[in-house]
Design brief:
13 helices; Rossmann fold; 367 residues; alpha/beta; four-stranded parallel sheet; disordered N terminus
Length: 367
Amino acid sequence: MMSPIILSKLKKMETTKALIPMIKTINTNNIAPMKGRVRYKTIDAVLESRQDIKAFMDGEADMHLLFDLPSSIPAERVECYKKLYAGIGNTSCYTIPLANDNLLRIKMEYTNGMGNNHYSRCWIPYLFIAETLGVIVPEETHLLEVSSGSAGISLSMAANFLDYKLTLVIPDKLPKGRTAPMEYYGANLVRVPGYIGNCIKEMRRLLVRNTYFPCNHSEENADLLVKIDKRIAMEYKAVYGTPDYCIIGLGNGTSTYAIFDYWTSFQKQPALVTYHPDLTKPEVVFGLYTSNVNLRHIEPALSMATERLYTSEMDIDMVRKLFCFDTEISNLGESSLYAIFIALEKAKHVASKTFFTIGYDKRDRYV
C-alpha cells in the first residue's frame, strides 16, 4: 500500500492544469534539522567518511537494504525513500527461443517503477546517499543533469517526490515521449541544438555561473551508478547463471561498463557484445553513443567488449515484423530491438547457447 504522502501527491498531480510544482513530501519540521548542515561539493569528497556505504555499494546486497544503513535523514523521510524504491529491481526476464536450440533472455528493465527504464534503479539510492552524506539538502539543492531521455525521466520523478529542484539539459530533437514526462514532473528543461556533446558543454557553462549540484554519474569517481547497475547482471546470474553472450548497447558507458565489468570478474565469461551508431554517419539512436562525446566509461567499456557492432548495419524492421504479434517485443524501444537483431543473427551460427540483453524502455519513448 502506498503511503498517504505519495497518494496525496498523485491526487494533486491528477487535478492540476499547469505543470506541477515541486510537491512536498515531508513536514517542514522534518526538513528543518537538515538545513544549515555542512555541505560538500561532491560525493567523492566525503564518501571516505562512510566506509559502511562504500562496502555496501561494492558488495552484492539487495539495493533495497541500503536504506537501513545509519543516516541523519529523518525516519519519516527514510520511509519515503523505501516506498519509492519498492517497485524497482529484481526485474523478470522475457525468454525467446532462437534457431538451433539457442535461447534469448531479455531482462525487462522497463517494468521498473519511477521511470520505466534501467535508470529507475539509480536515482533513489543516489539521492539517498548524497543526502545522507550532506552533499544535497531537500528544498535547497538544485540538481543539474544532461539526458537524452531515460536518465532524465527517472531523475525528474525522483527529484519531484523528494523535494529537489531539477534542471535537465537535453537535445532539442528529443521526441515528446521523452520530454513530456520530464516536464510533467516539474523539471526545468534547457533545450540545446545538436546532441549530447553540446548538452555537456552547456551543462559545464551553467555550472560556472550557478550553484547547481551536478549529478555527474559519468564523471564521479565514486561510480555509484556503476555499482547499482551491476546488480542487473547479478540478478540474472543468481537465477540463470552465466550466459554465453551478453549484448548491451553503448550509451554513456555507465551501465555497459558496469555489466561488462561484472562478467569479467569470473573465470567463465560470456562473449561481450556492444552496439551503437556508426560514428562516421549522421545517425542518432536515442540513448546510444554518438560522436563528439568523450565520457569516462566509454573507453573502458569498449576495451572489455569482444565485439563492437553498428546499428546502421542492422534491420530492426525485420525484428518488428517477426514479432509483430508479440506484445512484449513489439512494444520495446529501438535501442532494445538492435540487441534482439544481433541475437537472431548470431543464433544462425551457434547452437545451444544462451543470450542475455536488456529491455531498456518501450517504443512510446521514441515518438
